[in-house]
């Protein structure tokens, strides 16, 4: 038989398993992709395919119903503006990935004229849609998006978050500071070169102007430093904001008094420059990769509304938070079970992949309890809610105190420790100098006192952490390791134990190794392929993709028995494919992984074993991680893989059958013994452990998929770089140590000059930018070199 | 030399205009999305093609 060359779906680029769906010489992998193509071609939007090859996302997933969006209560939470003619709504669409997406999504009104205008924000994967509600309803908009392959992800958490997002004014503040800094520099230059006596009146004028420029910088751009310093002092915390605020204040007062009492030059140039550089540092530090959400809990993954069956047997949509104990709910194909519930009616095959990472659906019979978080695959089922949403087995985790208390005191950053010592030393030195000079010359004493506070203002110190960390963050980002913020780098450097989750973390979620017990001849391959292709059961699909494209042969009387297998007639032979009992009539109890048995006619052919596939290089990762790290494995699964895993983990460090709460408790217990733990997991069941750990890393094979709240998100393909990431984070922290040393030396020089009371504004104006530039270039170059050393950049 | 007062006044006013222009643009959301416009400008608006060619792999 001829092996066909693999054809790629014209829409999404997946390999076509069947050859049947064809139109205009183009093949499609599934009906969904074909339908999107038809809609676009009929609306004359074929250009979509011209911009990029295979721009679509696969449409093999089943459609969802959006009728709940028309409930006024839910609608009001989603839309941002509404009047008679126009409604504005923002949707988060994970499928946005290329220029074709932008092109198509901004031309939706050619498909439906009820849509007025669309705006895509590519990095946020968000589209703002303006539409006329008299022509098209919100649910129709969502359905339209879904029909062209851009299903919006609607969750209440994301909506709520949007409203909370306060617009920060950092950019305008930098603009004002930069504007004033530039002008003050211009006005200060004449003074640097010295003004002749004849030009004295210019000097006074320039000073006056400089003071005017300082006022908005201090009162608008720099006001946050005063606020934070005050706030921290009130809470008994001494951090870097205190010397900064003190320095700013003293500089401003001295500049004012220099003008009023005609004492010569003030510090206007240093003052504006200081605030400008500090704000730039803040900006760099804040520049996070905001298109990823690190704060997700179960709410962003649970449905917004649930279909509830009322006493009059009517279906109504009820917002999730209004779901009560005892409600009868209807869960359709591909919908998520929102609360712990008892199965009343229907065939339940629950996919817990979001919860555990295990992609094999679990069968449940009527009367059994189904825990929240599973996704129904198959026909609709009816359930009775037995626990409110927030109290369920899985969601109850979020009531744990790990989620309540802010995560501040995890690991004190190096800079916060140093700045405390620094502040205390600064106060002692400056007051000491003041007391030393006071009996001899109070003016000189005051002069020296203020000069110390000015020159010691830790500008370079405050900048070294943001610049190093921002550089480190971008190195991580290039390697598909996305950190929530810069503090995470220090957390990574501080850990000494690593805990792995099994399913989806050390194994690849959804990907299985399929093996057949015997050898298969080509004729059998064709038969099995053609039967399996008809089934939507995940195991059948895995087998058909394992066998690849085979020649189409005629099968008759195909019949699928849920939970057992399928039968069909090929020629005159009855073929049975399915569970051991279904095919052979015997029960096999010691199966370690799902098996699919095959019988053709009276001949038993053998079985397919579907194993979880471990990530490649797993043993290499673990041997590469330095020996001083303890490694553990926590799995919710049974110990079926214990044998294979004990090669890479110590046997006593392997723990199986761990509930989400067990995982959290394990980490908590270890932390009590001063162990700094990094948790690497993927599912909602790891959410508690991720939160409790000192550095929680969520692993995902598809970066747009749901990941539970964590400190960092790691692309599964980059897991093998983990040892390098750890070493690099240590180097980054070392760079910060060195840069602190450099900036402290600058301060030392400055302070020793200032103690004599001889500090001129010119020296301050030189030291401040010089130290800043040294620190910025040192940290950037050193971080770059460290990344190179650890082969994280080429 | 006293013309310097005038010139400095001019330069400050000019710079203020730029600062205000920046504020205006920031307020209008010019800095909200710094990536998408760079893609959008490269997309042709007119060429709606009925039957696209199969792209080469």
Question: How does this model look, in words?
Answer:
Chain A: It is found in: Cell membrane. The complex is a heterodimer of chains A (794) and B (57). By secondary structure, chain A is an alpha+beta fold. In chain A, 43% of the residues lie in helices and 17% in strands. Chain A is built from 27 helices and 28 strands. In chain A, the strands form six sheets. In chain A, strands 16-28-27-26-17-24-25 form a seven-stranded mixed β-sheet. In chain A, helix 10 (241-260) crosses helix 15, helix 14 (414-437) runs antiparallel to helix 15 (442-455) and helix 14 packs parallel to helix 26. The two termini of chain A are 47 Å apart. Chain B has helices at residues 3-27, 36-40. Chain B has 57 residues and is mostly helical. Chain B has one domain. The chains are: A alpha+beta (794), B mainly alpha (57). The A-B interface holds A 8, 10, 24-26, 41, 44-54, 99, 102-103, 106, 120-124, 171-172, 175-176, 179, 182-183, 186-187, 199, 202, 205, 209 and B 1, 4-5, 8, 11-12, 15-16, 18-19, 22-23, 26, 31-33, 35-36, 39-40, 42-44, 47-57.
Query: What is the overall pLDDT average of chain B?
Result: 78
SS content category of chain B: mainly alpha
| Estimated radius of gyration of chain B | 23 Å
Q: Give the N-terminus to C-terminus distance of chain A in angstroms.
A: 47 Å
Q: Write down how many β-strands of chain A occur, each being a DSSP E stretch of 2 or more residues.
A: 28
GO cellular component, one term (chain A): plasma membrane
Organism (chain A): Pedobacter cryophilus
Family (chain A): Belongs to the cation transport ATPase (P-type) (TC 3.A.3) family. Type IB subfamily.
Domain Putative metal-binding (chain A): 8-80
């Amino acid at each position: 038989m001829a092996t066909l060359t693999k054809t790629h779906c014209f829409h999404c680029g997946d390999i076509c398993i069947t050859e049947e769906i064809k139109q205009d010489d183009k093949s499609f992998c599934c009906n969904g992709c074909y339908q999107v193509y038809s809609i676009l071609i009929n609306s004359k939007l074929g250009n979509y395919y011209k911009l990029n090859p295979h721009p679509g996302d696969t449409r093999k997933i089943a459609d969802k119903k959006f009728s709940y969006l028309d409930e006024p209560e839910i609608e009001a939470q989603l839309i941002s503006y509404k009047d008679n003619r126009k409604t504005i709504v923002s949707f988060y669409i994970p499928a946005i990935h290329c220029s074709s997406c932008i092109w198509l999504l901004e031309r939706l009104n050619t498909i439906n004229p009820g849509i007025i205008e669309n705006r895509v924000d590519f990095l946020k994967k968000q589209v703002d849609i303006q539409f006329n509600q008299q022509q098209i309803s919100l649910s129709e908009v969502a359905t339209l998006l879904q029909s062209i392959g851009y299903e919006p992800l609607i969750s209440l958490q994301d909506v709520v978050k949007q409203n909370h997002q306060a617009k920060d004014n950092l950019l305008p503040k930098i603009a004002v500071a930069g504007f004033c800094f530039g002008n003050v520099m211009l006005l200060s230059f004449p003074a640097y070169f010295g003004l002749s006596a004849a030009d004295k009146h210019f000097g006074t004028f320039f000073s006056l102007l400089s003071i005017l420029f300082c006022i908005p910088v201090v009162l608008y751009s720099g006001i946050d430093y005063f606020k934070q310093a005050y706030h921290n002092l009130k809470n008994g915390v001494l951090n870097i904001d205190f010397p900064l605020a003190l320095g700013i204040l003293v500089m401003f007062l001295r500049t004012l008094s220099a003008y009023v009492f005609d004492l010569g030059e003030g510090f206007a140039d240093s003052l504006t420059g200081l605030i400008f550089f500090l704000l730039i540092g803040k900006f760099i530090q804040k520049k996070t990769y905001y298109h990823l959400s690190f704060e997700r809990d179960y709410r962003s993954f649970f449905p917004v509304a649930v279909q509830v069956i009322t006493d009059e047997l009517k279906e109504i949509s009820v917002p999730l938070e209004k779901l009560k104990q005892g409600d009868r709910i209807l869960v359709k194909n591909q919908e998520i079970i929102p609360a712990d519930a008892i199965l009343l009616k229907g065939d339940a095959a629950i996919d817990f992949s979001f919860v555990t990472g295990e992609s094999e659906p679990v069968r449940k019979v009527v009367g059994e309890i189904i825990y929240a978080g599973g996704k129904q695959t198959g026909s609709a089922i009816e359930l009775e809610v037995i626990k409110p949403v927030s109290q369920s087995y899985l969601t109850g985790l979020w009531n744990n105190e790990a989620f309540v208390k802010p995560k501040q005191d995890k690991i004190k950053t190096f800079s916060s420790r140093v700045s405390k010592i620094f502040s205390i030393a600064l106060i002692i030195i400056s007051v000491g100098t003041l007391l030393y000079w006071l009996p001899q010359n109070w003016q000189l004493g005051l002069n020296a006192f203020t000069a110390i506070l000015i020159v010691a203002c830790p500008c370079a110190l405050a900048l070294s952490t943001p610049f190093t960390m921002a550089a480190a963050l971008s190195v991580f980002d290039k390697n598909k390791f996305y950190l929530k913020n810069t503090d995470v780098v220090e957390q990574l450097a501080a850990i000494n134990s690593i805990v792995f989750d099994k399913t989806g973390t050390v194994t690849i979620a959804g990907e299985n190794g399929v093996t057949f017990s015997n050898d298969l001849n080509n004729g059998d391959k064709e038969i099995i392929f053609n039967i399996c292709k008809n089934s939507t059961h995940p195991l059948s699909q895995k087998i058909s993709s394992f066998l690849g494209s085979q020649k189409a042969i005629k099968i008759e009387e195909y019949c699928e028995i849920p939970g057992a297998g399928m039968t069909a007639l090929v020629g005159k032979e009855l073929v049975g494919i399915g569970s051991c009992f279904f095919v052979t009539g015997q029960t096999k109890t010691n199966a370690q992984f799902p098996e699919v048995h095959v019988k053709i006619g009276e001949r038993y052919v053998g079985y397919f074993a579907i194993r979880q596939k471990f990530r490649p290089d797993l043993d290499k990762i673990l041997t590469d991680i330095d020996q001083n790290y303890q490694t553990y494995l926590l799995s919710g699964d049974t110990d079926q893989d214990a044998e294979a895993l004990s090669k890479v983990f110590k046997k006593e460090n392997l723990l199986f059958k761990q509930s989400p709460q067990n995982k959290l408790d394990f980490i908590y217990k270890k932390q009590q013994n001063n162990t700094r733990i990094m948790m690497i997991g993927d599912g909602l069941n790891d959410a508690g452990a991720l939160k409790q750990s000192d550095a929680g890393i969520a692993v995902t094979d598809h970066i747009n998929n749901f990941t539970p709240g964590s400190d960092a998100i790691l692309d599964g393909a980059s897991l093998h770089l983990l040892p390098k990431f750890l070493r690099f984070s240590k180097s980054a922290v070392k760079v910060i140590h060195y840069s602190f040393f450099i900036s402290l030396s600058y301060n030392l020089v400055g302070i020793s000059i200032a103690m004599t009371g001889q500090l001129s504004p010119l020296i301050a104006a030189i030291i401040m930018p010089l130290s800043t530039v040294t620190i910025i270039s040192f940290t950037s170059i050193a971080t770059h070199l460290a990344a190179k050393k650890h082969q994280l950049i080429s | 030399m006293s013309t310097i007062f005038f010139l400095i006044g001019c330069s400050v006013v000019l710079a203020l205009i730029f600062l205000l222009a920046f504020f205006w643009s920031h307020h209008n959301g010019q800095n909200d999305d710094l990536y998408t416009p760079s893609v959008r400008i490269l997309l042709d608006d007119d060429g709606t093609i009925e039957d696209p060619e199969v792209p080469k792999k």
